[in-house]
Each structure stands twice: as structure tokens, then as C-alpha cells.
Amino acid sequence: MAGLALSAEQHVDAPPGAVFALFGAGCGAGWLFDAACDRLAVGAAVTLRAPLFGAAGEPVEILGRIATVRPPSRIEIVHDLPWRGRLRILVDPDGPGSRIRIIADLDGDGLNWLMRRRGFPVSEGELSGTHPVGLLTSKSGPASVFASATEHVAAMAVEEINAEGGIRGLPLRLVVGDDGTDPDLGALESWRLVRAGCRTIMATTTSATFTRAAHELRDAGVLMVQTVMNEGGIGSELRLQLGERPVDQVRAAAGRVMEAAGGRRWFLAGNDYIWPHMVHSAARRVVAEHAGTVVGEAFLPLGTRDFAPLIERILRSGADVVLSAFVGADLVQFERQCLAMGVRARCRTLAPALDEPTRERIGDAAATGLFGASGYFEELPGDANAAFVRRYREMYGRFAPPVSSISESVYEALHLYARAARRADDDNPVSIARALRGIRHHTFPRGDVVVDGPETFRQRLFVAEARPGGFTVSRAS
Amino acid sequence: MPADLAYDALADPVRREILNVLAEREELSAGELSSYIHRVGRTAVSSHLRVLRTAGLIAERRTGRFRYYSVDPTGPVQDVIRELQELIQGSLDATKSAAENGAARTDRNRPGRRVM
């Protein structure tokens, strides 16, 4: 990979072993050495909180994986977000002390991302002679945890679509926008994608961003597709909401979770925006169907890092089941703190947004026993999924983030879109949207899917119980 | 000023070398500059300078028939790269003080963490 290599160096009056031991110890040794990782081992997930926008700004989470560990002299981290790169930490003896060198890769995408975040205009390059489609995703902020494989999987779909001849003789070209898990930024980025020439935008963001962007672009004549799990409600001629619905997800897993918990008292807790609110109301319905009770409810803003007061309330409530409608980095922190505060001994948890990359960052200890429910898990049987996962690993290597229902949904949406666009009378988004409603596909990694109107996406659901290293997946009853 | 141009400009080793020389010498004519760059000839240096200037990485000043080049200190790409560099350096400064204040010895046996 061609790119710039930024480097920094420092002499330290401590031997290499002592310097090396600081990595991941979380003792205020700078944002690089304060990397969060459960195990310092090859393949382990690692998160760096880099104050990219100054001490006053929210730190940006660099999501990566340990690629090399050679105590006491070398640690390499590969990361996929906010850009793909590699960080090398080299510790050498230097007299009685050590010399630390950091070498950080910055590629074109990374530089563009940094430039845009600072408000500088960045060209998308030449788009004429292509069929541009926007991808609005979260390359930063709490949602970047669940969105981490999205861009890779989207690029894979684009490659396949173009190998089949593209769309109306033109190669499909993906233009990526980052909402930073912020609806305001999401709306701005959506406008940027439209100005760049996109007449369709696929969104894998939170519903908070999607609903805002869908509203702001109401007169733009742009087809917007929410590919990931969502609450529905704003489907229309140019708005498609695919993905799992909360009531189906909760209903799929509720019986099994209550059985495992040995009780029917639920505590509902989630982030404070539209999707978790709708998950809670779905849960109330399902709990009532099972003659259960709701003993408590709480919402916390996206970006919350201290869940202790909420967890104390949960423990006092006597709940058997926790419905955890947190997402991304918030779900990670909530579940880790639940483990630390003893929730696991008392309650079982259903987290509808629990997917592979989130499970991995929650970590084996805190994730084991959590339930999720969605239309896709990496462990699903079947040739189509095996080929999908194999191809993903061939393209992006073993350190790339795992695929999930979230990222796989954009793969499907792009293929469905390409099929509809080829079938439509013309390349007007209204015509393509019409062709898209009522399309079916039988060989996706998640199985058969049917788009049946602007908000009806039929698919099988699966219940997954987290175990060390992955999920045990079964068909929803 | 597009960052992708700057990126393309910086991806070339000769252009990075030119930038390094300019950063050290402040301002040079094309002729002076090519005496420092040994791996390519003067014509090539001129075309590299054009790429760097289009990308907004260097500034050009004309005096009579001479043109002088310098690193453009106001370019946003430079800002972004410099800030990132400072961020990494700042992190290492914190590592230094943590290491020299003995933080490693107290936190080494933090439970739940294994080194393999």
C-alpha cells in the first residue's frame, strides 16, 4: 500500500521491558500506549482513542487489531477505521534506557477523511463515465464499532456488480460519506454525496442519522435506502427501509432469553434516539404476550461512557432479563460494566444490535451468554455464506473486522439495487425504486430475501448466543 | 485544494525528497534544488515541482526570469499532516513521563490481561 509514513521518536530513561509493559496498561501513558485491549496477542481487537480534534473535541476511536507482538521491542496494529493503516511501535535499547519509534501509515483515504473533518473541500475524483452510488456510513463515533466492515463489504459488492457489466454499461462507483455517528454531520455528508453526483444513497448509520438525512434531502429527488436493522415508518416512493424490525427481533429471542433467565421481569435500557425507543415499545408488546412485566426503563444519550448509575438501578429492580438497546461503542461499554458490576449473575441480556464486531469489542468475558437476533450471522450455514465469508477474507485478510448483519445488509442492498437498476425503464431513481420494490433474491449469504414495498423486507431471523470467539446460532422459533 | 492531489504528490519518493530539501533550505530556485536531488535530472525536477505546486504543497515566487520554491506553510494538507505528527509525538511524550515515573511497575500485574 503506497502512503505516507509519519514517524515520531522519543528517548525514555527506562529499559525496553518497562516501556513495553506500559502498552495497554491504561495508566496515562498517552493515547497510543493507552490502547484498550483485553489481550496483548496477535488477532486481539484493540481500540485507540486519539484526540484528533484537540483536547476539547471528542477523541476518535481508531479500531484495529494486533498484528504483531514481539516483547519487548515491537507491536504492530492494523486498523480499518477511520482509515486503513498500520501503526508500528518499536522499542530499542538506547544506552541504559530505550528509544521508542512510532511509524503510522496515512493513505489517501485517511488524508481525505482528516481534511474533510477539518472542513476543507476534497474532490471525489472523476465520476463521469460511472454510475455513482453513495454509501453513508459511520467511520467514526460510537456507531463505527458496528459499521466497521461496511465499506469493505460494499466494495466487494461493487466489484462483483462491475464484473457482471456494471449498470447500463457504466461501472458502479461508490462514494463514501461518514456521519461520525452525528445526524447533523450525516445530513451534510448526504448533501455532499448528492453534489458529487449520487442519485442513490445506501445508509448503514443509526436511524437518528437516516431519518434526519432523509428529511433534509426530501426535495433532492434522491433514492435513500436504509439497509440495516431499523424501526421503519418513513418508507415512501424514494425511501426504502430494509433490515430487521425490532418487534421481529425481540419476538424471535424473547422466549429463549426468559427461559435461560428463569424469569419474566424485564428492564429496558437503551440509547436515547428513535430506534431504541421503538425497540422498547416492541419489547413491551412482546413481554405482554409472554405475560411478563417491565420493572424499569431508561434511556441514555449516544456516547455515554459511565453506566454505573443505570446498572445499579437494574440490580435494584430485581429484573431477570435486560433488554439492552444500546448500539456500537455504547453497547460495548454497557456490557463490560454489567459484567464488572455483577449483572451476569442475576440477569440474562438480549441486545438486538449485538453483532460480530460489537461482540468482539465487548470481549469474550463480558459477551458470553448475551443474546442477539438478526437475519445474518457469520456462522450461518450454506454455500452462499461460505463463499461470501471466504471472498471477504481473501480480499481483506485475517485482521479485517468480522462481517455481520449490518455490513452484509449493504452487500445485499447494492446487489438488489444493481438488479433493479438493470431492470428499470430508465435510470431515474423513481424508476429504480419502483423496480426495487417487489424484487426477490434467492442466493444471498443470509438466505432468501424479498422486498415487498418500501418498508417490507422479508427474511428469516436467527437467534444467536455469544460464546468465546463467536456465536452459537439457531433458527428463530 | 484537493487532498487527493496532495496525496498523489506525496506518494512519489522524489517529490517527498524535494519537500524535505525545501523544508531544510527554506527557498531555492529550480536549478539550486536539482543540485540536491541526485536521482533524477533537472527536467524531471521541474515537472515534480509543478505537481507539488498544483497540489498546494509548495509556493512559487518569481523574480525576473527566476522562479523560487518553498514549502507552503499555509497549506491545509501540511496542517493536517503536521497535526497528526504532533499528536503522535505528544503521545510519546506522555509515554516517556509515565515510564520514567514508574507507572509500568505498578500497573504491570493488572488482572485480566495476558501477554502471549
Describe the structure in your own words.
The complex is a heterodimer of chains A (477) and B (116). Chain A is an alpha/beta fold. Chain A folds into three domains: 4-113, START domain (Alpha-D-Glucose-1,6-Bisphosphate, Chain A, domain 4, 2-Layer Sandwich), CATH 3.30.530.20; 130-243 and 404-442, Rossmann fold; 246-378 and 463-475, Response regulator (Rossmann fold, 3-Layer(aba) Sandwich), CATH 3.40.50.2300. Chain A is built from 15 helices and 22 strands. In chain A, the strands form five sheets. Chain A has a six-stranded antiparallel sheet. In chain A, helix 10 links the parallel strand 15 and strand 16 (348-350). Chain A is globular, with a radius of gyration of 22 Å. Chain A starts with a strand and ends with a strand. The mean pLDDT of chain A is 94. In chain B, helix 1 (3-11) packs antiparallel against helix 4 and helix 3 (30-36) crosses helix 4 (42-54). A three-stranded antiparallel sheet of chain B has the order 1-3-2. Chain B has six helices and four strands, in the order ααβααββααβ. Mean pLDDT of chain B is 78; it is low at 104-116. Chain B is elongated. Chain B has two domains: 3-71, Winged helix-like DNA-binding domain superfamily/Winged helix DNA-binding domain (Arc Repressor Mutant, subunit A, Orthogonal Bundle), CATH 1.10.10; 76-100. Chain B has 116 residues and is α+β, with helices and mostly antiparallel strands. The longest helix of chain B has 25 residues, at 76-100. At the A-B interface, strand 1, helix 1, helix 2, strand 2 and strand 7 of A face helix 1, helix 5, helix 6 and strand 4 of B. Strand 2 of chain A pairs parallel with strand 4 of chain B, so a sheet runs across the interface.
